[in-house]
């Protein structure tokens, strides 16, 4: 039990650490502080593929599988397995990186490489022309190009998936602040306006209460550990003893005076260095385990430093995969992942994240710095098994830059999940600097969980803020410790209840009552299995209407994940109103019961069972008149991840692609709120036009549609307008074929 408590306490460390540094106040040698904005971009690497196997194999076995898969008529030349030289090389692996050479032959250096496969050992500039005209060369290239490489590899029964290699670029931009102007949110009135940053000032933080008047900011204490009362736990002997913490970042200097328990430093990049050339990794490690000056939360924890970014802030998916495998081998307890992005479809990366958490690794990641828009979460922090955290200041205000929920990749199938998981301080946090001293950083905080099923009990809710902004609220370290002293593994739900009347926490649900004939309201609930990595929902979840509270007037349909792995699953709850309540107004209540069963723990034979209750409360009103009902077409909106689509605003050349999906409650939130203020009722259509009754609605809104319209839809829509008087309102995006041909996206790889 004591070991569990110590591990759990260390998880909280990452709530403060900036694993993804979004905005930073760094003290420069000149005495000025500066804001450091961090941006992530991702792109495919030309002709490189990650081949993922169904199991772990030695390098010789992996090579044999690939050669077998590519053994077409002229052999497997044209392909090369890229060697990897790092700490994981000696161990079995579940992937390889391969390069397809055929498309590179216009580049002279690849002609030399290809010559190896043609047994031409004396290729030079003099006989290069001879090779180009050689029949064997021409036939080989044409033969290679005639084979679909991905299809050829994926046919092999031992190969799980083939995906393109990705490069991740992290850009750090230091912007100097005026002297003595060091705190985000504080207006330095005596300085020229042009010296101020766009994100500073009164709108840098989002107020959590109703009152917006100015108030004096509290002075920032010297130690963040004091604010969260870490000393209370230290006095009880809880300092992270025996906890293995992995920091995936830019490395750590050798013999840094702040660290006493650096167990291992490993390099996973193409650079031959273990040191931190930028200072970011040093700061992160300092907040975790510094033993002097700017103290870390777990000074007795064992640090494992993984250098996964170069000094140019470049990394590859394959570097992370190798490092992840090594972290599993080293039985890491807590892993801080200093990366985030908008694309959850990088399958090797996401699969490995699942494998990490399934092996008991607590993974923490920043929720992102793309706020204040809703639906701007970063991956992997938006996954159910990863703890994603947003930032607040010392006035308990949500950081304007902190990304908001809901998760967007479930939207096409209903609605997103609650995220972030929790919020904590992200302003002027002190940590170790690269030169041995301390510096202050600000930005999206990264937090960590205690246990998956208990996170909602470890935080204090912030008033006046939506659950898609604050998650379960603000970290309360000592309260978490007290809870853990009596904690017993069980299953829980996130959110733990559904109250469609509670504002602002249940925004947007609380902004519009439900009524008969409306499109069902969908709430996506995460099931957290604290009993084990694998479990299942036994039987079917049951709706229990409270007859004395009109629960029978609600129609509840539930879909759910049969398997809970790793540690989690979902309940998708569809809420609609029965015809009996078409003219009724009031509050309807009931609850849903869910029973989770988990496999026996090591050394036991007892199957663990936990029954959870999900209270549900909704306000029903009489069906509004047709003139007040508007239908929003979500079915044809841009979906996440969208692919390579240019933004509506072509002037945004530094970020030309639209990475976020469209939804009335995310990037079109302002439109939704405006319509509600005008007493219109807005319903969201997630199905084709053939699935709604036009006689119920005054208008159909087509806002920036991207997906195609089927012939049956166009026929029905014309009939709805002509025969049933449906109004059609179209907010059209630009479409110009000549402009589209000129809009080209390049990076250093593609």
TrEMBL record:
The record's annotation in PROSITE patterns points to: SUBTILASE, SUBTILASE_HIS, SUBTILASE_SER
* Keyword line: Hydrolase, Protease, Serine protease, Signal
Gene Ontology molecular function, alphabetical: serine-type endopeptidase activity
Q: Tell me which residues make up the MBTPS1 fourth domain.
A: 624-750
Which residues does the UniProt record annotate as the domain Peptidase S8/S53?
Answer: 240-464
Start and end residues of each MBTPS1 third domain: 494-623
* Domain of life of the native organism: Eukaryota
Annotated GO CC locations = Golgi apparatus
Q: Where is the active site?
A: 249, 280, 445
Which family is it part of? Belongs to the peptidase S8 family.
Q: What is this protein called?
A: Membrane-bound transcription factor site-1 protease
Q: Which organism is it from?
A: Artemia franciscana (Brine shrimp)
Its lineage reads: Eukaryota, Metazoa, Ecdysozoa, Arthropoda, Crustacea
